[in-house]
């Protein structure tokens, strides 16, 4: 493996900054997470929706919000030869709502439960755990504003992390109000921060004009200190939002989901209303990045041209989850590991083994082989490396006799069986 510097000096190509290859030995984690996501999604009645990676730029400017970090700093925008302005999708929710409105999903029975997995692109400062291409699992429930759905969605998240064997996970939750109560709260915030403008970080001084709620979750030490005294969102909710939030918390209690109220959680996107949440490993809440997060969006569908319709959703960071599973040394077993290695010797043995390989594969026996290696030693070494319990050996003699040798890789004991019986014999042994 050559270093980055060497590759550059030799004019070799590299993956773009902030992107990476997921190597074969890593795939086991990704497959497992996608499997659990799919299983949990189905068990809660979610249907899969896949949307294109490219979308119109305007969708996110209008949906995510023109003053958000995603739109201002992080979108990969491009102009096509035909002059269209497209982006590599930076998040799923606006794309789901675009599809919901475009594909007639709005006329299906509600609430509509949709999910997907796939890559997202954000031009972020790249570092471990933060990539410019990352993958998320995304879940949305569209069509109702009942607080029970907010709680059940958080339960879906917990079912996925639980299904992966992760423990000590906690939800952080807040309510950021609605169109009725947020303007007054926003005003209060602006008044509060204006009095202390000189103490704010540079970014927050700029944000104060456009997106004052974002000041609440600024990580700069100066702003964190000021935020100890900021008026809190939950003290400034209208009755409807207050009751909605109270109900969400009661449902979470009922589900025994551990949560922490976090009055600084705002999630930074324009479309959120009422509930916002993030899911964190308990021991690192506030450090690195959350495993995922989401919230309610009761205005987004109208903003994007539909009827006034509620929605609630979340995104779960798969890269982050993979790193976390590895840090915690959680064993992820692969269902696709081979249980048999087929060793072939001599020209006739190779021919017959080629056919036997197909017979075994069709009989759903997971078989590995190396047809380009010709010595017994080299092939048995590979079998050893793959930790298969059995090897099949098919040489010139066996090919002529219509037999094959089954070798127990642990004990080294061998038995010759007829070709017709080999599948039955293997199935018996592999089961044991
Ligand atoms: P967000 O869409 O920003 O709410 O992110 C949801 C989750 O996706 C986060 O909690 C992270 O786990 C993950 N995530 C977001 N951005 C990135 C990134 N640049 N690289 C890796 N994971 C990310």
Automatic annotation (TrEMBL):
It comes from Candidatus Portnoybacteria bacterium CG_4_10_14_0_2_um_filter_43_36. The lineage of its organism: Bacteria, Candidatus Portnoyibacteriota. L-histidine binds at residues 91-93, 122, 136, 140, 267, 271-272. One of its GO terms (cellular component) is cytoplasm. NCBIfam families: hisS. It is found in: Cytoplasm. Homodimer. Residues 1-338 form the Aminoacyl-transfer RNA synthetases class-II family profile domain. Coiled coil: none annotated. InterPro entries: aa-tRNA-synth_II, aa-tRNA-synth_II/BPL/LPL, Anticodon-bd, Anticodon-bd_dom_sf, His-tRNA-ligase, HisRS-like_core, HisRS/HisZ, HisRS_anticodon. GO terms for biological process: histidyl-tRNA aminoacylation. Belongs to the class-II aminoacyl-tRNA synthetase family. Gene3D superfamilies: Anticodon-binding domain (3.40.50.800), Bira Bifunctional Protein, Domain 2 (3.30.930.10). CDD domains: HisRS-like_core, HisRS_anticodon. Keywords: Aminoacyl-tRNA synthetase, ATP-binding, Cytoplasm, Ligase, Nucleotide-binding, Protein biosynthesis. It catalyses: tRNA(His) + L-histidine + ATP = L-histidyl-tRNA(His) + AMP + diphosphate + H(+). It is an enzyme of class 6 (ligase). GO terms for molecular function: ATP binding; histidine-tRNA ligase activity. This is Histidine--tRNA ligase. Its main location: cytoplasm. Its EC number is 6.1.1.21.
